[in-house]
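Supplementary notes for students who missed Thursday's class. We covered one full example, reproduced here. Read the sequence, then the structure, then the short commentary at the end.
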Amino acid sequence: MKSTFEVSDKLFELYHRVHRLINESMTEEGVSLARSKFLFFLSKLGPCRSTDIAGALNFAPRTVTEAIDGLERDKLVVRKPDPEDRRAKIVSITEVGRVVLEAAEHPRKQLIEEIFSALDDEQLDQMHEIVSRLVVRTDEIRRRKQEGAGNGASR
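Structure (token representation):
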């Protein structure tokens, strides 16, 4: 029987290998996995402030600003003044950004299908159940830690 650490290490190894392979394939199509996260977010939710992006993607504001600078330079997004706050800018995906995102999504989906084709339907269902349980447990632990930090901060 494998230890929890052996299984955990194998899971992290899988994640990193899949991430690297997908990033390489998407980059060949014109947008890295990291940049595609920004484009995907803007594509789904529409124009928004960079602070909204930072909060949603859990990135530092400076990281988001630098990423948007690069995306804007490549004409994948555009910044316009926020009509409600003259200090802020609204970021939108451009048509070029949509085309690049769509082109990069194809190899990502194709690779995921190819990787997971190693499992039959029953194994996929089992893996989904196992990973779902781990997600729930992770959320429980995070919530417990946040509640504990909140209690300690009030002392």
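Commentary. The chain has one domain: 4-118. The helical segments are 4-28, 33-45, 50-57, 61-73, 95-116, 121-153. If anything here is unclear, bring it to office hours.
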